[in-house]
Design a protein that fits this description.
Number of domains: 1
CATH class: Mainly Beta
CATH architecture: Beta Barrel
Helix content: under 10%
Number of helices: 3
Shape: globular
Order of helices and strands: HEEEEEEEEHEEHE
Strand order of the largest sheet: 1-2-3-4-5-6-7-8-9-10-11
Number of strands: 11
Largest sheet: 11 strands, mixed, barrel
CATH superfamily: monomeric porin ompg
Radius of gyration: 18 Å
């Protein structure tokens, strides 16, 4: 089972991720949101679609909580198809703010149910995630009126229970990106991400995955 999963992941060494991330403000503290996306590989027929809705509560401008569910479907045509259902809980902290720079922290847990007939896979995985992001002040570029910003982040993803399938997903993510505040509702980002595999089973087959991620954010408001 583990070897099949390694082989399935190993051919997708360069990926494109596209995401649409809408949100809707319910009140000063509550917000609905999430993301939906399509991901594919330039070096294989690997593909992925996902839907990840959630609801968040902001205690103040520094601390927020988010819970939600997600469904991921990953496949390579005529090779395998893998389904994954998740629930998640996250704590977000914006601190410190140094001038116009600010840091974002996100710590949380995911409960993952994975299944695939082709991979002989039917497993539950409990995963922890920690995310740290630095966001730059806004600046102008190309004489455009809409301001830009830079971002850099680091994320750790680890299986808590250290079971065979869960450890195959242990990795670190390193990302740099450029974003543009097109208007008060709409924001666009392009990011380059390196996914570094830490589990030795997969690492012997594929050390890292390179990702270009294009993400669009939109805030819906009541009329």
């Amino acid at each position: 089972m583990a070897q099949l999963n390694v082989s399935a992941q190993g051919s997708a060494k360069f990926q494109i991720w596209t995401d649409f991330t809408p949100s809707y403000k319910l009140s000063d503290h509550w917000k609905l949101g999430g993301d939906v996306g399509y991901r594919f590989s330039l070096t294989s027929s690997w593909q992925n679609t996902y839907l990840r809705p959630g609801i968040s509560y902001s205690l103040n401008d520094k601390i927020n909580f988010k819970v939600g569910v997600a469904y991921f479907n990953t496949w390579e045509p005529q090779v395998y198809n893998k389904s994954e259902f998740r629930s998640f809980q996250f704590l977000g902290v914006v601190w410190p703010r140094i001038g116009n720079f600010h840091f974002k922290h996100r710590l949380g847990f995911e409960q993952r149910w994975l299944s695939s007939d082709e991979l002989n896979l039917d497993e539950y995985v409990n995963r922890a995630r920690y995310y740290l992001e630095l966001i730059s002040p806004k600046f102008t570029l190309f004489n455009m009126k809409a301001p830009f910003f830079m971002t850099a982040n680091f994320e750790i993803l680890r299986d808590i229970e250290k079971n065979e399938v869960g450890k195959l997903g242990d990795h670190n993510r390193y990302t740099i990106g450029l974003g543009n505040h097109i208007n008060d509702r709409f924001r666009a980002e392009i990011r380059f991400k390196i996914i570094n595999i830490v589990d030795p089973t997969i690492n012997s087959y594929i050390r890292e995955i390179n990702v270009i991620r294009v993400r669009l954010y939109y805030k819906f408001v009541s009329t």
